Amino acid sequence: MKFLVCISKAPDTTSRIAFTEGDTKFDSNGVQFIVNPYDEWYALVRALELKEQHGGTVTTVTVGEADCDPVIRKALAIGADDAVRIDAQPQDALHVASLIANHAKDAGYDVILCGKETIDHNGSVVGGMVAEMLDLAYISLAITLDLEGGKAHAKREASGGLETVEATMPVVVSAAKGMAEQRIPNMRGIMAARTKPLNVEAPEGGTLGTTVSRFEMPPAKGDCKMVSADQPEELIRLLREEAKVL
Fold it and tell me: CATH class for domain 2-220?
């Protein structure tokens, strides 16, 4: 069974965010980049668990330039068999999805997994785009995933409970919290990752949908107003007239 896991790099949540060139470009100076947690903790680890149950291989795919190699090597250290880096600077979700789909279209993957979203853009659209481009079934926001008899069985949270879904493989799945538990690479995995194949492919079939005109930091938080517990009327007035949430 062949698994493909989409891996992306993202800024560590403790990094200081700034922009350059008139707020048109993200300033990466001094930023610590990590494997996107949804890709690493849930999509990749579940693929490895399923490989251990059913056999096969786990390949990761990343759209990015050479500065992505450290995060790719971490995915290899966790247990992926090999990796593909599509040598292009990601422009938007459509660009990333179209490059991944072009790589995967003739590769014979049974299951393509990705995290539900990246922690920097929070778009949650790449998985769905890849499925559409490959004309495959898509299960979004899955918190469990099992394979049996050529079918994928998954559960995802729904209003008031859980929704159980089934799809015929090959299938694309986006993984949400609960899919698996984080694995920490051990020394043996780290050493093995140095010699595992990391294949660099030229970008083909990429489609650009949007461009960034400028970035803008969120407004600074205002002062906190304290309301006495014996003045609920004042709290309601503030919520209605100033916060405008009621």
Answer: alpha beta
